[in-house]
Model the fold of this input.
Amino acid sequence: MSLKAGMAARVRPVIIEGTVERVRFDEDTGEKRVLFAWTGADGEPHSRWFPEGDLDAVEPVAEPAAA
Done:
């Protein structure tokens, strides 16, 4: 369906999975923050600090067995 002005729409959510690289406490807010790292769709590595509450722990994806 083609979008037209005035139509209701939504942004498709993007699920990004990666690893927590570091953990720290923000001295100003006392909030626990985590450095989250992932590989983007472009194959490039990315990382960003997030409040701990913005992330959910997940089971790690098993690496394929070597042939």
